[in-house]
């Protein structure tokens, strides 16, 4: 269940299909990536996708962070959802990598999530969000 | 030395608040120990055999007297009055209480220090040459580059849940004093057609599968470096093994797919990443470099008086040439005979801070060999420095000799260890306590690990010792021929292991074989490489 969503458009109703099913000439507009899947396989189809769900079966498995950045760097504008073993202290990094909705398996305390997202005013490095890296602030 | 601006300070201050919040949630039971573990680890907090251990970052091993005094203060106030300097140029405290951690970090933040990413499956503290800025053979000071990497890697959103930990070293000299090619990424700064850039080595490491990093790129320009490293890391994050934690380091990926395939994948990824505009302009490297400008040297060149024989011995062994005439690099040994390698009391830490302030332009370095360096000492002050060190029991003249042992904390502290390391180090140092005998043996790097994870760098020891558990009894394997320097190599196991006293005897026999067979000014490792294992084996097992 989507607990946190940081976009204003309508939630897509269509259930997401696996990458294999999608590539098998599906007309689906929602797809689900497992950690082993290559996010780049979706690049030719980004225009017609409204939801990409990235699975985190274990919070320690960080492949989904790269998947998210790859999709955003390729211009994907739709909803990018982190689903699974998603924890409070990962959400800030996930936001930076381009995720804008979260469906954690175990419900999260909204106050703790809000605090976790508010700790840092700046970031050292550029990522998939709109945060201006510190080096750029220094050099105008 | 680098000084934080408001942005840097805000980052460490925010980190303190964040970690305090995480600890409070853990204490309140809102998160499980399993969920807390990666959070505390990313802040250098381990649960060890007897207590929490906190590892504090000393970026590229450089610190000033104010920071050094803070390290002493923390040892005094929150620990048992001592700290342990580590092989990654950090310091760790062995007896920390969870409820004190946020306060410790808050105190550290007041002197521009932190424990960020000193553990966890993320990019760790960037290490470098302890003689940076002072070495005669460097093409540039590597520390501004290391600082650039420190900032880039801090809270990196994509690379904080890597398959495994990730260590980067930066050097800028042909002589490798940082074990650069035994890191996940080793950078050697070089000059090509007048332009500075980095030679990039990827996939080295020690641990249970030691490997020497192959060169992946002979020259990456300064303003391409972060994009290139992002590409290196992204390929690893996506394709590094996650099915087996013992095969999850990048060295295994590169070993399995081959350096050529990895290089191609990185090149493809780099072509894409470079378009994203994530490289700071050269002006940022220049801004950082300004903090590392040479100190205001005195032009006087006054050689010290060598009349005191103990001083002369120390001078010859622990003091190294400096790029500036009239100056020298002083190595402070944290390896007293019979002591614990790398340990220093808070009083000793304060004394080293005082010396740095008075005699070394307020700078100290920590070395990967667990010693401390005063990088800018005027030669005319050397005797005064030595007298103070001698009175503080910090003047052991054993740099790079057999008693300058690297040892991990071992089973005395560590929850991963199979055997104790410290008592073996103490016994070997005591066996070779006679300084004339040590000096006669010359450079002999002896390194001890208490388990296969190799924190004591045994693979890189001219003589390496690995403690294992053999049916409930501590057993020690010997390896010969390793090196972490520019002649990098991995030591080979010489045969069946020994008990604690047996391994000390075996080391002694090996040194006798060396003395009998050495030619010219060969070091132990040179003789071993020339004659091979047989004569040593015969003497030890025959």
Topology:
The complex is a heterodimer of chains A (140) and B (542).
Chain A: E1 4-5, E2 17-18, H1 19-23, E3 30-33, E4 51-56, H2 63-73, E5 79-84, H3 91-97, E6 101-104, H4 110-118, H5 134-139
Parallel strand pairs in A: 2-3, 3-4, 4-5, 5-6
Antiparallel strand pairs in A: 1-6
Chain B: H1 6-27, H2 33-41, E1 45-47, E2 52-56, E3 62-64, H3 65-78, E4 82-85, E5 91-96, H4 101-109, E6 127-128, H5 143-153, E7 168-171, E8 185-192, E9 195-202, E10 215-221, H6 225-239, H7 250-257, H8 259-273, H9 282-290, H10 309-318, E11 319-321, E12 327-332, E13 343-345, H11 346-359, E14 363-366, E15 372-378, H12 382-391, E16 406-407, H13 422-431, H14 435-441, E17 446-449, E18 463-470, E19 473-480, E20 492-493, H15 500-517, H16 524-531, H17 534-541
Task: Give an overview of the whole structure.
- The complex is a heterodimer of chains A (140) and B (542).
- Chain A is built from 5 helices and 6 strands.
- Chain A has helices at residues 19-23, 63-73, 91-97, 110-118, 134-139; strands spanning 4-5, 17-18, 30-33, 51-56, 79-84, 101-104.
- The longest helix of chain A has 11 residues, at 63-73.
- With 542 residues, chain B is an alpha+beta fold.
- Chain B has 4 domains: 6-109, Alpha-Beta Complex (Sulfite Reductase Hemoprotein, domain 2), CATH 3.90.480.20; 134-289, Sulfite Reductase Hemoprotein, domain 1; 309-391, Alpha-Beta Plaits; 406-541, Sulfite Reductase Hemoprotein, domain 1, CATH 3.30.413.
- Chain B has 17 helices and 20 strands.
- Chain B has a 5-stranded antiparallel sheet with strand order 1-2-5-4-13. In chain B, strands 3-14-15-12-11 form a 5-stranded antiparallel sheet.
- Chain B is globular, with a radius of gyration of 23 Å.
- Chains A and B meet through helix 2, helix 3, helix 4 and helix 5 of A and helix 1, helix 2, helix 6 and helix 9 of B.
